[in-house]
User: What shape does this take?
Amino acid sequence: MGFAQLVIGPAGSGKSTYCSSLYRHCKTLGRSIHIGNLDPAAENFDYPITMDIRELISLDDVMEELGLGPNGGLIYCMAMEHLEENLDDWLTEELDNYLDDDYLVFDFPGQIELFSHVPMLRNFVEHLKRKNYNVCGVYLLDCQFITDVTKSVNGCMASLSATIQLELPHVNILSKMDLVTNKRDSENYLDPEPQLVLSELNQRMTPRFKKLNKSLIKLVDEYSMVSFIPLNLRKESSIQHVLAQTDNGIQYGED
Ligand SMILES: Nc1nc2c(ncn2[C@@H]2O[C@H](COP(=O)(O)OP(=O)(O)OP(=O)(O)O)[C@@H](O)[C@H]2O)c(=O)[nH]1
Ligand SMILES: [Mg+2]
Assistant: This one.
């Protein structure tokens, strides 16, 4: 049985930095970890990667082949479509390099389209599962994005959408907590109290959104999955806590 984390979340939310810190943390613990890069546009890494999507496709190739500029989303989508056709063979070959109980962490690109472009991500997950991997989704959200109620609801919806689409054990992380100056504010949004969020939303928006607000909050509440774990990379104990949560999600170390 192998173990895998899929690290996803909006562009710039700190996914690669998280992978890097996790790598260093595990090395310190003497724990096995392998980082796979799934971002065709990634450039520099301060940690070794043992799997690299750029062997299969690079942003430069896509730009040249399709005559496109580095125009964010569109290119990524094309890249991912091309990827889909070749993904299975590549993964099969790559996964053969790992031992049965290896721990893999996959760093995804931040393009939001990727999450709504279900087949690629889901195929990837299905493939890992067939290979007997326990997989969990790790969704990172920059804590600066939830400093007010509308942003926090937006963040919850995005994470919820990823959860629903992936159908995997899921850990939500609020990243870059070292940048938070007002601790109380951010704590309010770590594990939002639905009724409070609702009344705050209603105060902020014109009355005609009342019904919509209510439905949104009900949805978030019913799934009761949207709570965030704070991650402060300056604190080893914070990384440890996040690792314990993800370990729990994929039942790592239980036998
Ligand atoms: N202060 C602080 N900055 C961070 C932290 N994590 C990431 N950053 C900064 O945020 C920026 C984006 O970080 P990345 O790790 O590249 O984010 P990403 O999610 O991999 O970005 P994409 O791959 O482009 O989607 C960089 O400038 C990082 O230095 C953190 O914990 N604290
Ligand atoms: Mg990255």
